[in-house]
Amino acid sequence: TQGGQGPDVPWRALAWALSTLGGVLTVGSVRMLLLTLGFHRWRAGRARAKDAQLLVDALLHPRALARVGLFGLGFATVTLAVTAQFWGLELAGLAFAVSGAWLAGPAWLIHLSMSSPEERD
User: Tens-of-pLDDT digits for all 121 residues of the chain?
Assistant: First the structure.
C-alpha cells in the first residue's frame, strides 16, 4: 500500500491518521448501533440486560447513542473514502479489515438474535 511504502510517499502521516481514524470509527460506531439494538431487544423481552448494560442503567440515552453511531459510521466512510482517493484503495481496505468491524458486527448481531432473557449458568 502507498501509506506504508516509506518516507517518499507524500503526506504519509495524514494517510496513517485518516486510515486509523476510519478503522476505529467503523468498529466503534457499529458497536454503538448494536448496543442500541440490544437495548430495544431487552425492552421487548428478547435479550438480556447485560447485552446493553450502559443503556439499561440509564448511563446513556439510546437515541443519542444511535445518532452518534450513525454519525461516526458516516464520518468513517468519508475518512476511508478520502484515504482511498488519495493514497489508494489498498490502504483504505486494510484499515477496514484491521478494524475487525466486518467480523465483530455480524458476530454481535448473531449474539443478539440468539440471546434470550433468561440468565444462563
Answer: 444 556 676 788 899 899 999 999 999 999 999 999 999 999 998 888 888 888 989 888 999 999 999 999 999 999 999 999 998 899 899 999 999 999 999 999 898 888 666 655 4
* Residue 118 contacts residue 50 (beta carbons within 8 Å): no
State how far the Cα of 44 lies from the Cα of 92, in Å rounded to an integer: 38
Contacts of 95 (CB under 8 A, 6+ apart): 19, 20, 22, 23, 80, 83
Contact (CB, 8 A) for 26 and 99: yes
Neighbours of 90 (CB within 10 A): 14
Which one-letter DSSP state was computed for residue 48?
Answer: -
